[in-house]
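Question: Hello, beginner here. Any chance you could explain the protein record under this note? Any guidance would be welcome.
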Amino acid sequence: MLPYGRQSIDAADVEAVVAALGSDWLTTGPRVARFEADIEAVAGAPAVTVTNGTTALHAAYAAAGVGRGDEVITTPMTFVATASGAAMLGAEVIFADIEEDTANLDPAAVDAVVTTRTKVITAVDYAGVPADYDRLRKITDSAGAILVGDAAHSIGSTYRGRPVGTLADLTTFSFFPTKNLTTGEGGAVVSTRPELIERLRDFRTVGSVRDPERLRRTDEGGWYYEVQEFGLNYRLPDVLCALGSAQLRRLGDFKARRARLTARYDELLADVPGLRLPARRPDVDPIRHLYPVRVLDGRRREVYDRLRAAGIGVQVNYIPVYWHPVFEDLGYRRGMCPVAEAFYAEELSLPLFYDLSDSDQDRVVDTLRGILGS
């Protein structure tokens, strides 16, 4: 089965991991700080590594102070963790609809649902295309809220010349194998605000504080630490950080290859009837995580089934979050975000990853043409 996404591991990646395994530090060692510095060089803001993209979102919401009585506005066109991380802290999740062309959070829809209880607005860079952060920033500033960017798809992308990582107050990354680079499992949160970075570091280390200037009691020995707020063990070990640093050195190549494959899809599928290709935005330079087409005329299920039967592992990204029973049981109902639901009914992600060969891509295109032409 040709997958829709897959990691790319080379000899340098293996060498980095083997070196970490032979060192004195398997976790909480120097490779963690090194990987965080490498992320900062790409993202443009200090980084805190965590165990995966889901815990990155949970840590970001905790650092933002999300709790009971707060509202968090986000998109339904995302993986459930974008919403569940806030809900688990006691917040009410408010879903705002998406832009029809990009599937990103629609600032106008956000503006319509902001209240005095709005604590956080969370955008998602769908398929690697950054959201409209300048418009969202105006809304969050006016509301006194915190802007979060779920950039699980978009490390390496830029928005109006600025790197993802500098656009929101808190930006989360995922390093799952299907993402633009991988640590196996892993994630990170970046922020340009030092007080949020401090809260992130505390939270991902079970809330423990060792800085003498922050301790409430200063008359104990060198072993002493304090837990001043609850946190969790979300530490990413040195072994995986070593892989992450090695992968980041290839990010430019990853981006260039994904751009070439995207351009080939655009050219080869341009005249296929019943198919709508992804939109382009002149103000962004994305690293394409997904190639999401829209299958028209109610044929998405048929096309999905026939491609999978032909050994082509297409995917659907995503089921609207509030359709999941965990949200239905909280009172959320279908029809809340009609643009997102219409997008979901047609969306299909074609295979896109660094090692996808031209011949495999041609097979995807030829098979898709044959199905839609029949």
